Amino acid sequence: MRMLVRSASxxxxxxxxxxxPAAAWAGGSGFGDDDDNADEGGPSYFGFVRDSSGATVPDxxxxxxxxxxxxxxxxxxxxxxxxxxxxxxxIDPEDVKVSCDKDGYKQIRVVRRSSPNPDPxxxxxxxxxxxR
Amino acid sequence: xxxxxxxxxxxxxxxxxxxSERGAAxxxxxxxxxxxxxxNPQMAAMMSMLIQPRHAKLGLAGATDNWPLxxxxxxxxxxxxxxxxxxxPRWKGLPVPDLxxxxxxxxxxxxxxxxxxxxxxxxxxxxxxxxxxxxACHATTEHPYVVIKxxxxxxxxxQDFQPKR
Lengths: 132, 165
Prior knowledge:
Chain A is α+β, with helices and mostly antiparallel strands. Chain A has one helix at residues 2-27, and strands at residues 45-51, 61-66, 70-75, 81-84, 96-101, 106-112, 124-131. In chain B, strands 1-2 form a two-stranded antiparallel sheet.
């Protein structure tokens, strides 16, 4: 009887080993080229920094602040864009303010271009305009 | 004996579960009997179909002073950006028309001027800036590993890039 049980145990292990990959594959996994790898936090913050002519401003300092409690400082890239990761999921994007700065410029306008979206994959877009 | 019966039941249950899941998703590529779905290429496919080959052909045309072809490929490339931005106006929430504008508008205008003047040095410079713009955009959109370069060979063996004399 003990041998029978042992043999059956082996069968169980073998069956699981054979079936698991098929089961996992059948469950499917995304293979779209535009898959998102966003983590579980709140939405990220993205935008352009432009000058008053509309041209983008690379290497501008951008500060993303949560009610003056936490600030993330970054710089715009070659395209004049910045992106910072989101805060916690429960943070209201309305409480997050963006400002920009660059030597020789002053900030004249900050415009939120997209409304806060509950989908954490959609960044909150805020454009900041500087003037010489 | 009871243990044995439990094990047999477990094996049978697991096998049934696995086979039912396999049945639910018979083929990862879809169902041969399904209605044809509308073709809806997304950003990566649009880049591979409409942008990368046209960028290459524009470079190859400019490299051989084939200005009529360069002019044509420039229009095609610009149109490729327009089609892509209209088809995918936001990609992962990012504004595609604005990204294209920031990345390639100025270099495309510089190339246009160079092609009109048939001025090779300016074309080379502007084409380099266009290529830099592509890579800057890839970096902004978290694809820095997609590195575009000035073509050093043709990927189109069935097309002659030399100007017609």
